[in-house]
Amino acid sequence: MHYFRRKGWEISEREATPEALFLDRRSVLGAGAGALLSGLTPTIALAATEEADPSAALYPAKRNDAFTLDRELTAEKLNGQYNNFYEFGTDKRIFTRVDTLKTRPWTIKIDGMVEKAREIGIDDLLKQVQLEERLYRHRCVEAWSMTVPWTGFPLKALIAIAKPLASAKYVRFETFLDPKMGPGQKLSWYPWPYVEGLTMAEAMNDLTLMVTGAYGKPLAKQFGAPIRLHVPWKYGFKSAKSITRISFTDEQPKNFWQSLQASEYGFWANVNPAVAHPRWSQATEEVLGKSERAPTLLFNGYAEQVADLYKGMEGQKIWF
Known about the structure:
The chain is α+β, with helices and mostly antiparallel strands.
């Protein structure tokens, strides 16, 4: 007799959103837009306006059932109205201020320790990769969490395009720098542009995703359009938004929050309930949309896939 042992982060098929409801979401959005035009409050409101996205026909992408969840998905409206994006302000209502983010044209520079530096437009990049949908946990260092249906492609697919040298040890991500587009960048005490980094081993892990969409359509601006990173076993600040440069280096990148407050934020940012932030516990998390807190899981529930990355590093500060 064979027994199936469900992984800690998996959800049963009967708990998944019905396909008919998922595929009918565009009519819901259309109803919301109609209500807005008639002076009523729309059912779903993300950003005030959305420009036409030339990649829209690529969505919804086929779901990869290898990446499932043990929780219900966070409602799109709630997710879309509760975001950190310091380029547009320090509160959570970023969706009201992101219209200044212009996502076309959008070019990503690939440089550093690569065979040949290059620049590639987002739509040209999308022609070279295969998009898929994955259901992922998202855990913020502020001790709240979401579950999101991201659409994107594995970072390792982009690395294959970039062709880094064997001597490259890290991948450095940099977001746009334009205070006119992101007025939060006028706050001079922040170390702009936003920078994050991963080791090559972390970047090549199957879980590490370059995200271009969510909820079956192109990425909303407040999520970090047109392309962002998501590393689900790390705190959310590692997942840089609106990326314009990806560099390969043999030096560990110093990230945005590490530059601002190194005593509280480091390079690794691995989720660990046993290691508190200097100002609050990480033992539990607020699951947005729920009325109770949940225990925080080691590596955000992805220990089976990533724990081997950190063997032999037990004496190092791999959590912050």
